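Before relying on records like the one below, remember that each one covers exactly one chain. Contacts with other chains, cofactors or solvent are not represented anywhere in the record.
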Amino acid sequence: MFTGIVTDLGEVRSVKPRADNLHRITIYCRYPRAELVQGASIACSGVCLTVVDTGEEDGRGWFAVDAAAETLAVTSVGRWRHGTRVNLERSLKLGDELGGHMVAGHVDGLANVVAREDMTDMARFLLRAPHELARFVAPKGSVALDGVSLTVNAVEGDTFSVLIIPHTLAVTTFGALATGSDVNLEIDTMARYAARLMDSK
């Protein structure tokens, strides 16, 4: 589990196709190598991936993950290349501060940036959710976009808006996010279960 509070901005070192439709992805990071153990979970731009190797190169630490066909098809991971920046968050430990909302790292689909408005103190993003997911997005509710916990500002049809403060713009990939970009969308777990209960009635 995660909270959507990004703790590092990583950079893709390499993407290597492997057998069985797997991609081995190596990501530079600032996490101490001693704290990156094989089998650990790291949210990479909102996608929960398992560490399969670690190392250092030219003074930079890195970890490797394997992305399967489903992950490559449903998320932005299949588009990652050398140099792609990714938001990173290590999984929660007992006693950690819950600064955002409960995030599973299970991406539901891709949301598209319809417009970006830069203001004096923040930026406003208007995004379009896949139609089948739009009903889970509510004003003042939570979403995770590329692994960042955000509060929904307004909703109209399949579109919704979020406001990004300067700190978040500086320490995540949102600073470089432009109109037309796709971001990984994870809907709020509570909304998912509430909808399921309503459907069962």
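Residues 189-200 form the longest helix (12 residues).
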